């Protein structure tokens, strides 16, 4: 009996005004050791298109390029799914770079440990700026909330994120596509798990993720992440765990220690010890005194941004009860 044809992967990338990032991503796809994939790029109403970059790499990468009106990244991903030919859909962000063995590693992982949906970690490439490396440390360290974002150390059930996530066509046929909302990847992962499918972390299937280029943009991003955790609790009652409260507890605890230090100077000691731990581990893990030091700032930005967003949304949506029609809001965004 003939062996079944190997899986065809469809890499689906929504993009909005990021031609330089797409060029870097396509350059990494062009040197993949496993060529069993197609790339589906959905330009979501960009005013600065990446069609020229797609044309430049069309001899090395099988590319399907589509331009559509701006409706949001989730709708763009679903648009790509509808036009993809793959047996397995892979989602990466436009600000990612894939190692040359990404597809090969994924194929090996699916053979050795089959799954319906996978996620993988992210890391900082040597070419990234010091700020991007510091932010990567903050987002992946077990001393912050990194343990719930795809690393080997996890504080809750693993939840794939769309900077490095994939699922089979069978999953999509049953669960449907993404919903246009903040933290749409967590929502999608939750629906996949509730539908009875297997979700796996593939530690060896990693991407290089550029993330934000400055702390101000990073703070805005994580602030929204904190707010969206409350939205997910309203959508899936009981889904919020103690670990999700940690950034909010950091904000409240740090503020309390700073105020208390005006009356008793030793009250600040726990906060100082934590900051020192962030700095020491940052210097060790990044192998750089400068990046480790910047990583402390990035970690504080992450925790305060997420924590204040969480507190803000908790007060507004749960205590003041302004978030009870969240499903209606999601459907409105989808145009239904």
Low-confidence stretches: 147-155
- Could you give the order of strands across the largest sheet? 3-2-1-4-8-6-9
Number of E-state strands: 10
Helix/strand class:
alpha/beta
Q: Which range does the strand content fall in? A: 5-15%
Q: Enumerate how many helices there are, as a single number.
A: 12
Main sheet overview: 7 strands, mixed
What characteristics describe this protein?
336 residues, alpha/beta, 3-stranded mixed sheet, 7-stranded mixed sheet, 48% helix
Can you describe this structure?
This protein has 336 residues and is of the alpha/beta class. The protein contains twelve helices and ten strands. The protein has helices spanning 19-30, 51-56, 73-82, 102-112, 130-140, 169-175, 184-194, 215-235, 246-261, 269-286, 289-319, 326-333, and strands at residues 9-15, 37-44, 63-68, 88-91, 96-97, 117-119, 122-123, 165-168, 199-201, 207-209. β1, α1 and β2 form a beta-alpha-beta unit. α8 (215-235) packs parallel to α11 (289-319). The model is unreliable at 147-155 (pLDDT under 50).
Secondary structure elements and pairings:
Blueprint: E1 9-15, H1 19-30, E2 37-44, H2 51-56, E3 63-68, H3 73-82, E4 88-91, E5 96-97, H4 102-112, E6 117-119, E7 122-123, H5 130-140, E8 165-168, H6 169-175, H7 184-194, E9 199-201, E10 207-209, H8 215-235, H9 246-261, H10 269-286, H11 289-319, H12 326-333
Parallel strand pairs: 1-2, 1-4, 2-3, 6-9, 7-10
Antiparallel strand pairs: 4-8, 5-10, 6-8
């Amino acid at each position: 009996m003939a062996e079944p044809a190997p899986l065809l992967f469809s890499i689906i990338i929504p993009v909005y005004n990021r031609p330089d990032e797409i060029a870097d991503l396509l350059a990494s796809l062009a040197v993949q050791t496993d060529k069993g994939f197609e790339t589906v790029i959905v330009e979501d109403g960009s005013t600065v298109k990446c069609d020229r970059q797609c044309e430049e790499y069309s001899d090395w990468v099988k590319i399907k390029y589509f331009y559509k009106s701006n409706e949001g990244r989730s709708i763009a991903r679903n648009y790509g799914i509808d036009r993809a030919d793959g047996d397995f859909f892979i989602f990466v962000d436009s600000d990612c770079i894939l190692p040359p063995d990404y597809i090969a590693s994924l194929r090996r992982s699916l053979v050795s440990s089959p799954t319906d949906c996978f996620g993988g970690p992210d890391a900082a490439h040597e070419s990234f700026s010091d700020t991007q490396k510091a932010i990567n440390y903050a987002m992946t360290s077990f001393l912050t909330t990194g343990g719930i974002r795809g690393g080997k150390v996890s504080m809750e059930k693993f939840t794939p994120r769309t900077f490095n996530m994939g699922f089979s066509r069978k999953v999509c046929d049953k669960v449907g596509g993404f919903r246009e909302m903040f933290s749409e990847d967590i929502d999608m992962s939750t629906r996949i798990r509730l539908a009875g499918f297997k979700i796996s972390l593939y530690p060896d299937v990693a991407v290089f993720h550029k993330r934000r280029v400055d702390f101000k943009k990073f703070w805005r991003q994580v602030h929204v992440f904190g707010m969206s955790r409350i939205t997910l609790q309203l959508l899936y009652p009981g889904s919020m765990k103690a670990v999700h409260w940690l950034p909010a507890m950091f904000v409240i605890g740090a503020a309390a220690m700073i105020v208390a230090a005006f009356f008793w100077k030793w009250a600040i000691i726990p906060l100082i010890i934590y900051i020192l731990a962030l700095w020491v581990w940052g210097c060790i893990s990044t192998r750089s005194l400068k990046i480790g030091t910047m990583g402390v700032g990035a970690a504080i930005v992450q925790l305060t941004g997420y924590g204040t967003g969480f507190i803000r949304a908790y007060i507004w949506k749960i205590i003041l009860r302004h978030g009870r029609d969240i499903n209606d809001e999601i459907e409105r965004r989808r145009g239904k």
